[in-house]
Amino acid sequence: MGVALRRGDDPEAFPGGSGREVRVAGGWVAERSERGPKDAPGERLEWVAPRRQHLRLFPLILCVHLLVPGVHLVLAQDISTYSGHHYSWVEGARIGHDFGRNPWSPGGQGTEGFVSPGGRAVLRQALAQAVEAGEERLSFDFGFDFRSIVQRGEDGTLVLDPFVMPSLEIFLAELDSSHAQAQARGRSLGADVVLTDFRIADRQPADPDHPEVGGDTPAFILDPEARRDLVAALAPALARLGQHPRITLNLMNEPEFLAFPVAKALASLRQGQWPAASYVERRAGKVVVASGAAVVPLLEALGPEGHVRVQRDQHTGAAKLSSTPARVADVDQFLIALREGIALAAPQAQVTVGWADDRSAIENTLRLEKRVGHPLTEVVSFHVYDVAINPWHPLKTTRADFAKAGLGDRQLRITEWGLGSPQGQQALQEAMIAVFSKVQQAGFEGVLFWWDADHLFDYRAYRQAIAPFALPTAVALDQASTPVQTALGPAYPNPFNAGTHLPYQLATPGPVRLQVYNLAGQLVDELVDQWQTAGAHDITWSGDRASGIYLYELRTSTLTLRRRMVLIK
Questions:
Q1: pLDDT over threshold 70, residue 112
Q2: CATH number reported for the structural domain that contains residue 459 in this entry
Q3: pTM summary value
Q4: Which of 87, 360, 398, 415 has the maximum number of C-beta atoms within 10 A of its C-beta?
Q5: CA distance 252 to 518
């Protein structure tokens, strides 16, 4: 993200420095070119979004800022880096699901996912459209529930479906290929991979003898031993995905709906948030169904410790509630077990959870991390279903609300924003522009679209909608407003502690210098100083330095480009 500096600001960010960045209070970074105000192109501020352990740097950064006069904030935030669409299980059902067999595929038999020629072609087409549109982030379901990715082996142990790892390798190969195409346009391409949706507790067990693989209240949620078996089965996939520098692992979408406290459900009903709600309860083999006002006494009868499972009617958006023996604490333990499994398989993995809305993201993240005593996620993400048929979760907060709760130093993204099904390119474009505007004003990093993206996604509409909200990645020094092919990409991983990649793209061959500086403007490392050919390049920096914020600078005969990276020891 970034905001522009006004022409006429002091160009000298550091004594003796020739164009550096300055971090100011609140996490903003000022970036200026090496020339003076008259010639200064592309001046901007960038939000660093450090983790909590970076807070110790704030006093130093604030002192640097106070030494730099004339810095003014002008809102022009770049939200393109983490914006795109969700490649949903609905699309995946056409090929049998993304990474394994999908019980919802045509005929219910499942197919070979990305391993099949048709599945790989559909994936490649989706990625190509994303690159063409200028998207830099996509979201994929790893398993809509665990029936599509795990099964019982001959010895009775829980194992990955045999299609999972081959599908995963194809997915990563296609993602990397598309990322290279995006780099040629001065951008990047990454992905969020959702390990499971909250339907792991649906009522359709794949194998009656092993209900933990499906079922209304699967043992994965309630039984510690079953959780351990699941995490062990997932370990190879978690390791492969978690080690990829441009992938974020989403533990689950909307986990709170697996076990929703009755008190909160009653409050939602009384506040009119769940219109036309229905309730289903099983008693002694019988099914009791109620709707409207009749739902309230049935919920009250569950008592203050009672919990319900919440679903949405896909057509009306109405809440569908059912009783469940699971509790919030059970779901928390499930998420913690998944997170611990990722930490063992891929310590450098970036992790998030797709909470149901922005307020629940604050509440649930704080509760989870209080339970374990340390941060669990690098990214705080949530859903927004701000559409006429489902007005549950309009955007209610800004970054300031997360900051008050102590979460403002994380990356804050919207995992899914449902737009319904706008008719036509113009309607879709207008809806996306409205969303981008809301996301930018709230100070969040980006947004992934859902519903419209499933089958109606129009990359032309996205490309035109995102344009006003994305800053150019490279600007010629003598042509302040003209984007060019040469670009300096974001470091990955970032933050990092054991080395990071610094990608860049050259439009033409020529002399190149790539250097690393600290915040004081002192040269820390020189990585490249030579003539290089046109095309994509990728340099690794070991990061053998003290923790802190570093700047890497690419210089050609006509360009000077800079970005920041955060080193954590």
A1: no
A2: 3.20.20.80
A3: 0.70
A4: 415
A5: 38
Cis peptide before 208 (omega within 30 of 0): no
DSSP-assigned beta bridge partners for residue 513: 529, 555
CB of 169 closer than 8 Å to CB of 241: no
Phi, psi of 87 (to 5 degrees): -80, 100
String of DSSP letters for 544-569: -S-SEEEEEEEE-SS-EEEEEEEE--
Q: How far, in whole angstroms, is CA 147 from its chain's centroid?
A: 24
Classify each residue of 203-222 as buried b or exposed e, where b means 16 or more C-beta atoms within 10 Å of its C-beta.
eebbeeebbbbbbbbbbbbb
Q: Does residue 481 contact residue 467 with C-beta atoms inside 8 Å? A: no
DSSP state of 292: G
- The pair of structure tokens assigned to 382 is 């949530």
Task: Round to whole Å and give the CA distance between 560 and 35.
Answer: 10
The first and second tokens of residue 397, run together, are: 């907060």
Q: Identify the sign of the CA torsion 241, 367, 217, 253.
A: negative
Tally of structural domains, the chain: 3
Q: What is the pLDDT of residues 276-321, one digit of tens each?
A: 888 887 666 667 788 888 889 989 988 989 999 888 766 666 788 8
Q: Do residue 107 and residue 33 come from a single domain?
A: no
Nearest to 411 by CA among 87, 82, 134: 82
What lies within 8 Å, CB to CB, of 501 at 6+ separation is: 245, 491, 492, 538, 539, 540
**Looking at 181-195, 442-456, 477-491, 552-566, which range is the least confident one?**
477-491
Which residues have CB under 8 Å from 157's CB, separation 6+?
229, 233
Among 180-189, 284-293, 349-358, 422-431, the range scoring the smallest mean pLDDT is 284-293
Which of the 8 DSSP states describes residue 85? Answer: E
Task: Look at the chain and count its residues.
Answer: 569
Statement to judge: residues 453 and 498 lie in one domain: no
Distance between CA atoms of 486 and 536, rounded to whole angstroms? 9
Q: State how beta strands 548-555 and 510-518 pair.
A: antiparallel
**Is 125 buried (19+), middle (13-18) or exposed (0-12) by CB count in 10 A?**
exposed
Residue 67 has pLDDT above 80, yes or no: no
Mean pLDDT across the stretch 263-288? Answer: 80
Domain span including residue 459: 84-257+326-469
Q: Specify whether 137 is located in the same domain as 228.
A: yes
Residues 180 and 128 sit within 8 Å (Cβ to Cβ): no
Encoded tokens for 561 = 């480009």
Q: Among 556, 411, 549, 505, which Cα is nearest to 1's? A: 411
